[in-house]
């Protein structure tokens, strides 16, 4: 019984993301870079990420293992990213 309680507490603590909302509206685990001019999109810097998103709130970013950052659309395309099927 005590082990189950410890696991439940640990699960809750691990499930609470350390998200920070900046004045740009970008929710992420690390720094948010502003996109000046042009259309900005959001990408995950995790090793398995391959899409770009319209919004930092897209459910496609929920499992991001890296940071969520804002980049220009042209930069995202330059990186070989393709549009997210959920938000585009």
In words, what does this structure look like?
The chain has 88 residues and is α+β, with helices and mostly antiparallel strands. The chain has one domain. Helix content is 23%, strand content 22%. The protein contains two helices and six strands; from the N terminus they run H-E-E-E-E-E-H-E. It has a four-stranded mixed beta sheet with strand order 5-3-4-6. A hairpin with a 6-residue loop joins strand 3 and strand 4. The longest helix has 14 residues, at 2-15. The chain is globular and about 25 Å long. The protein starts with a helix and ends in a 5-residue tail after the last strand. The model is unreliable at 3-37 (pLDDT under 50).
In angstroms, what separates the terminal alpha carbons? 47 Å
Q: What is the count of β-strands?
A: 6
Overall pLDDT, averaged? 72
Strand content: 15-25%
* Count of domains: 1
What structural category arises from helix and sheet content? alpha+beta
Fraction of residues in helix? 10-25%
SSE order:
HEEEEEHE
Largest sheet descriptor: 4 strands, mixed
Alpha plus pi helix count: 2
Task: Give the oligomeric state of the chains in this entry, treating copies of one chain as homo and distinct chains as hetero.
Answer: single chain
In one word, what is the shape? globular
Radius of gyration over C-alpha positions, nearest whole angstrom: 16 Å
Strand order, largest beta sheet = 5-3-4-6
Report the uncertain regions. Answer: 3-37
């Amino acid at each position: 019984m005590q082990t189950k309680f410890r696991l439940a507490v640990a699960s809750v603590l691990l499930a609470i993301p350390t998200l920070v909302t900046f004045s740009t509206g970008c929710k992420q685990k690390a720094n948010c870079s502003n996109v000046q001019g042009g259309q900005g999109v959001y990408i995950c810097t995790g090793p398995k990420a391959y899409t770009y998103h319209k919004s930092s709130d897209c459910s496609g970013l929920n499992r991001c293992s890296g940071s969520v950052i804002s980049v220009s659309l042209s930069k995202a395309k330059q990186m070989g990213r393709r549009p997210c099927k959920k938000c585009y």
